[in-house]
Every structure is written in structure tokens, then in C-alpha cells.
């Protein structure tokens, strides 16, 4: 009888320990999620935007048409904080980037154009800085169909640099490239200008190559 009582006490004790452990784990996971929501915010500050327009009233950060954040546009600049995007906005449950390869410029409620971060060096190579969100740390050194990729990104928002000379092949790196500046591209001519169309096509294909390369390496 005494032995049975001891066994019941041990069983009850083990059950309490398991319940306490589960509670601690649940609290730990919850803290990790809360930490992710507060610690990965990323502030974008733009000053002296080239080709600025008095018609711009607001700058928005959008992903797949969903507004993440907005800021007032004044004195040819803005400051906007990028929050953690919802999971349903992530491609392959892992990553996403801003619509229009930069920030969207609005005149009231109407989209008027995009604001890009770019530079052109002495070799006439174009570099575009683009903000990407990753749901986990990513390190990748590989190539995909003419795009050389060398990135080391933390969980959260990261600034990646796409460089090209012929708008066909190029490089992608997370290593800082100096000299980038902001420029406003008017939507009315953005889609009509041949060079702009080629730039958009290059950025589209480069983004797809990055996703493909990451997916390929995750399967290894």
C-alpha cells in the first residue's frame, strides 16, 4: 500500500514537472515572438531626394499592395519605420520585399511614383539598394542564371545592393556600397520610358533568381 502511494506521488510529481515545463516553454516561445515584433523594426531615412516633386504628400512602404507603414513627405525627404510583415505576405514563408523596389510616393490617395535608392559609378554600373525582409538569418554565396549572389543577412529587414551594367547580368550583395542617393521616379513616365522598363525587368528577374537560389540551397 505504501509502495502504491509512493508511485502515485511520483506520478503526480512528474505530471506537475511536465506541466511546469510546458508552461515555461510556452512563455519562452511567446517572449521570442514578442521580441521578434519589437526588435526587427528598421528605420529608413531619406534626405535630399532628387527630382523631388511638391505633389508628393506621403510615402508608403507596401508589400503585395498591403501598406506596412507610411510617413509624411516634406523638405524633399522622409523617415519611415518598417515593421515586421505578416506571415501571409512572405514568399515561401521566408522573405518579401517592398513593392516598386523602393518606397511608394503618393499625392493624396493616388500613387504618383516611386522613390529609389541608387548610384552609378565611373564604370557606368548601376546599383539599386532594395529592402528585403527575411524571417531567419540567411547566408548565401552562389550564382543563379547570370546573377552572382553574396549575402549575409540577419532576421528582419536588410538592405541589399543589386549592381548591373547591361541590365541582363549583375551582382547582389549585402556588403555596403557607398554613394547611394534617393531619386523620385514619376509613375506617368516610369512605365513608358524604355530604360525604366528595362530596369524594372532586371529587378524583377533578380528577385526571382534570389528566391530560386535560396530555395535551391535550403534543399541541400
Describe the structure.
Strands 2, 3, 5, 6, 7, 8, 9, 10, 11, 12 and 13 form an eleven-stranded mixed sheet that branches. The protein starts with a helix and ends with a helix. The protein has helices at about 1-40, 185-190, 195-220, and strands at about 40-45, 60-65, 65-70, 80, 95, 105, 110-120, 125-135, 140-145, 145-155, 155-165, 170-175, 180-185. The chain is about 30% helix and about 40% strand. With about 220 residues, the chain is α+β, with helices and mostly antiparallel strands.
> Describe the biggest sheet?
11 strands, mixed
Tell me roughly what share of residues is in helical segments: 25-40%
Unreliable stretches, pLDDT < 50, 5 or more residues? 2-39
Q: What is the helix/strand order? A: HEEEEEEEEEEEEEHH
Short description:
With 220 residues, this protein is an alpha+beta fold.
Detail the topology: elements first, then pairings.
Elements: H1 2-39, E1 42-46, E2 58-63, E3 66-72, E4 78-82, E5 95-97, E6 103-107, E7 110-120, E8 126-134, E9 138-144, E10 147-153, E11 156-164, E12 170-173, E13 181-186, H2 187-190, H3 194-218
Parallel strand pairs: 10-12
Antiparallel strand pairs: 1-4, 2-3, 2-6, 5-8, 6-7, 7-8, 7-13, 8-11, 9-10, 11-12
